[in-house]
């Protein structure tokens, strides 16, 4: 077994409590399809943020795009058909092995935020203890079957680069619910008419997705992954892609220790440096 998970057997309801869980995952091994996740051992002790140099990852996105489902599949290999809006912050502490390097990671799942805080005062006033402005990296999630949800993370990302220095801060854009693509054709329509409607819908969807991919990869210069949390398809790839970005920064001398203060402006001076995610 190349990885292990230390947690307690609990109900889905208790998993949404304030308890913290620690897992150790070899992402390279998992992506190759090795092994299965199993529940073993006793409840773990929450790592102390003061004693660990944590990689702090925050997931953000519009309502019902599947942020919590992505995390639950990654941590527990579990998916719930029932939609329960996230109403408070939940944190997870996996130990991740990537390229034979070990990282202690803090994954934060927060309720939907209407805007990204422009400074520490607004964060303290409205998003206390969310850790939005000092995150090591961000995962921005949208719904592939509802591309309008991309506009939310587009606006959020613009606010991020305007309000904090994004140098050496990896951003990964994730299109979730890949399983729902081209599956919304009305069932009452049959035969050639249904086929024509499906082809038209798929064509429009593909064009919008191409535009999104071009914007994210070519203009934002960010990572991009499509997945399905429901079927656990490419969920490991999401975190592997992000950790690859973080690992590359760490070993190129641009890691967390080299980051400017979180409240440094990302305006004129930020645009003159090489970014992992640059202003378009």
Total of domains: 1
Q: Residue share in helices?
A: 25-40%
The named CATH superfamily: P-loop containing nucleotide triphosphate hydrolases
CA-based gyration radius: 19 Å
**Order of strands in the sheet with the most strands?**
1-2-4-5-3-6-7-8
H and E string: EHEHEHEEHEHEHEH
Q: Averaging pLDDT over every residue, what do you get? A: 77
Question: Which CATH class is shown?
Answer: Alpha Beta
Shape: globular
Strand content: 15-25%
Largest sheet: 8 strands, mixed
Regions with pLDDT < 50 over 5+ consecutive residues? 1-21, 35-51, 264-280
User: What is the rounded distance between the termini?
Assistant: 44 Å
Number of strands: 8
Secondary structure class reads alpha/beta
CATH architecture heading: 3-Layer(aba) Sandwich
Could you tell me the CATH topology label: Rossmann fold
Can you walk me through this structure?
- With 280 residues, the protein is α/β, with parallel strands linked by helices.
- A hairpin with a 2-residue loop joins strand 4 (90-98) and strand 5 (101-109).
- An 8-stranded mixed beta sheet has the order 1-2-4-5-3-6-7-8, sandwiched between helices.
- The chain is globular.
- The protein contains 7 helices and 8 strands; from the N terminus they run E-H-E-H-E-H-E-E-H-E-H-E-H-E-H.
- The protein has helices spanning 12-15, 27-31, 67-76, 120-126, 148-163, 191-219, 235-250; strands spanning 4-6, 22-26, 55-61, 90-98, 101-109, 137-143, 171-176, 223-226.
- It has a single domain, classed as P-loop containing nucleotide triphosphate hydrolases (Rossmann fold).
């Amino acid at each position: 077994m190349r990885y292990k998970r230390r947690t307690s057997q609990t109900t889905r309801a208790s998993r949404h409590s304030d308890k913290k869980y620690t897992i150790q995952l070899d992402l390279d091994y998992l992506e190759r399809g090795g092994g299965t996740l199993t529940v073993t051992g006793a409840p773990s002790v929450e790592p102390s943020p003061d004693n660990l140099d944590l990689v702090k990852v925050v997931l953000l996105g519009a309502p019902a795009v599947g942020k919590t489902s992505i995390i639950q599949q990654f941590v527990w290999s579990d998916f719930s058909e029932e939609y329960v809006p996230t109403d408070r912050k939940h944190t997870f502490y996996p130990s991740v092995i990537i390229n034979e390097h070990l990282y202690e990671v803090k994954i934060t799942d927060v309720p939907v935020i209407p805007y990204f805080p422009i400074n520490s005062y607004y964060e303290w006033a409205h998003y206390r203890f969310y850790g939005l402005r000092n995150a090591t990296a961000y995962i921005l999630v949208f719904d592939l079957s509802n591309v309008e949800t991309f506009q939310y993370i587009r606006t959020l990302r613009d606010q991020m680069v305007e309000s904090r220095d994004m140098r050496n801060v990896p951003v990964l854009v994730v299109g979730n619910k890949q399983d729902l693509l081209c599956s919304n054709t009305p069932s009452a329509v049959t035969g050639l008419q249904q086929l024509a409607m499906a082809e038209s819908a798929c064509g429009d969807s593909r064009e919008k997705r191409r535009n999104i991919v071009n914007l994210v990869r070519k203009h934002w210069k960010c990572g991009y992954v499509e997945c399905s949390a429901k079927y656990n398809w490419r969920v490991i790839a999401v975190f592997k892609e992000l950790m690859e970005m973080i690992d590359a920064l760490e070993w190129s001398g641009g890691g967390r220790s080299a980051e400017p203060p979180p409240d440094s402006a990302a305006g004129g001076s930020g645009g003159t440096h090489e970014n992992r995610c640059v202003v378009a």
